[in-house]
Structures are given as C-alpha cells and as structure tokens.
Amino acid sequence: MDPIGFQTHDHAHCIENSLGVADQTCRENGLQLTAVRRRVLEILLQKHCAMGAYEVLDQLRSEGMGSQPPVAYRALDFLVSHGFAHRIERLNAFVACAHPGQQHAPCFLICTSCSAVVEAPGRPAAEALGISARELGFEIERVAIEAEGKCPRCQEKVNA
Ligand SMILES: [Zn+2]
Ligand SMILES: [Zn+2]
Ligand SMILES: [Zn+2]
C-alpha cells in the first residue's frame, strides 16, 4: 500500500480499507472485534489526527456506547496491542494505523499547526537506533519515533 502522506485522498476508501483489514485480521487470528472496539477504530479513522482517550470516550458516550473511561481505554489497548492503532507518546493520544496488517516500525510526523499526523515508514531509523543500542549493550524493548513540524499545507499558509 502506498503511504497516504499529507496529500488529500479518497478518505472514505481509506476508512473502509482499514476497517476491512481489521475485520479480516481479527477473523484470521481469533480476535474479537467487538462493536465498541470497531467503533473506536472508526472514530480514530475519521481524520488523520491523533485523539486523546477522553475525546474517544466523549464520542462513545454521545452515541450511547459506554460512558465509563475503562470502556474506551480497554478498546484502545486492544487496538494498539494488535497494531490497528498506535499511541503517540508526545501527544498522549492515539491514531489509527495507516498500514494495518503489515509488520512495521512506525515513525510519526506531527504537524504542530493543524495536528495532522502521518505515519511514515520508520524502519531505517529504527534499524539505525538498534545498531547504536547494540554497541552500547542495550536491549531495546520499545521504540517511539516522533517528529514535530509543519505539514506541506501549513508551510504554504505561512509562505502565502
Ligand atoms: Zn485517509
Ligand atoms: Zn502503523
Ligand atoms: Zn499542518
């Protein structure tokens, strides 16, 4: 799948594709994509932006799907642990995975003006980090690569 990048694209297709991959992956691996878990993924997929757990909870509550924080947290945990979503440490928020079903070391480009988040292939950066860590005898358990800056659209706005 091509990276979505910051370009405008057929986002309805994008949502449909991600939900389809989640449905299929869960079916193949005997995982339960419950109504709440699926709806939380759908909520995260609405925009390519990171969302806090409380924003997700607010939406669930307004739809009558649960009003207790653990409902949202447990669904987010499930989505993150199975690779359907990622946690953005820098923002303490969650974003739907742009390449579900693929093994990857995600790297996030976060626009500080419009809060767009793009998941870029992070493998080269993760590999370089792995080499440095090994040289120092460090065993990496988890890597988070996140960059903040301006997306192409926001750069244009500044220069206009
Ligand atoms: Zn999209
Ligand atoms: Zn991903
Ligand atoms: Zn932006």
Automatic annotation (TrEMBL):
Which GO CC terms are listed, alphabetically? cytosol
Any one Gene Ontology molecular-function term assigned to this protein's record: DNA-binding transcription factor activity
Q: Which GO terms describe its biological process?
A: negative regulation of DNA-templated transcription; regulation of secondary metabolite biosynthetic process
Q: Which Gene3D superfamilies match?
A: 3.30.1490.190, Winged helix-like DNA-binding domain superfamily/Winged helix DNA-binding domain
Q: Which InterPro entries match?
A: FUR, Fur_C, WH-like_DNA-bd_sf, WH_DNA-bd_sf
SUPFAM superfamilies listed in its UniProt record: Winged helix' DNA-binding domain (SSF46785)
Which cofactor(s) are needed, names only?
Zn(2+)
Free-text cofactor note = Binds 1 zinc ion per subunit.
Where does this protein hold Zn(2+)?
Answer: 111, 114, 151, 154
Write the record's keywords in alphabetical order, separated by commas: DNA-binding, Metal-binding, Repressor, Transcription, Transcription regulation, Zinc
Which PANTHER family has this protein been placed in? ZINC UPTAKE REGULATION PROTEIN (PTHR33202:SF6)
Family statement drawn from the similarity comment of this UniProt entry = Belongs to the Fur family.
* Protein name (database record): Zinc uptake regulation protein
Q: Which organism is it from?
A: Pelagimonas varians
User: What high-level taxonomic lineage is stated for the organism?
Assistant: Bacteria, Pseudomonadati, Pseudomonadota, Alphaproteobacteria, Rhodobacterales
Gene this chain is encoded by? zur_2
